[in-house]
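User: Could you write out the 3D structure of this protein bound to fructose -6-phosphate? I've included everything you need below.
Assistant: Certainly. Input first, then the structure.
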Amino acid sequence: MKILKVSDYAEMSSKAAEFIIGKLQHNPKLNLGLATGGTPVGLYEQLVKNHKQNNTSYRNVTTFNLDEYIGLSGENPNSYRFYMNEQLFNHIDIQKSNTFVPLGDTQNPQQFCVEYEKLLAAHGGVDLQILGIGSNGHIGFNEPYTSFQSETHLVELEASTREANARFFNSLDEVPTHAITMGIASIMRSKEILLLVSGESKRDALVQLLQGDVNENFPASILRTHPCVTIIADKAAIGKIA
Ligand code: F6R
């Protein structure tokens, strides 16, 4: 794992954008795995800014999002589809038909998960997966003790994850209890991974990732076994650990 230390959230976001744009220059048909949440908002802002200034094209890019809440349609402002459209897709030249986010309002979540995994395989997999990390070590919505062999699946969210995400909703009650997420094995099949970590609240998770054992009780620890992971972390997250 390579670790790139940056001063703050803004620098993390611009370095991450540079990283992605560099990959796009080599491969305009990049299959990009995307995350939501607070961490990549600044990254998406930078990608939009760069698209406007330099015309970087996403015409031939395909994207796959990690996860989506069950019960929310893409029109719901709290859905991850809505987030992606607002933060990124509506502002770049990507073809919406090439953007895939699990369907939160699918009638048959189990079947959908199988189809999503097939879709990933049919496209040759993800070239570069962007990840954030939960303070309990979750990646995607793979909570502690998720099998390292897991593929796209339906999950019940941990209370701590619902509480952490309640800031985006009117109340905790409104936070869905279940989600669809790519599994750990699905994430590990990505050819390359870029993990973004910002803020003091992620410091313990970063310590555990860098220094703890590789163990299903801390899902992100599996990243230590991936051949091509870059972490961009800011000072507040790193503290004195690396
Ligand atoms: C979101 C996702 C989650 C987040 C994680 C951190 O698509 O997959 O694993 O990356 O919950 O969230 P933030 O960035 O809000 O701290």
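The chain has one domain: 2-198+209-238.
User: Perfect, thank you.
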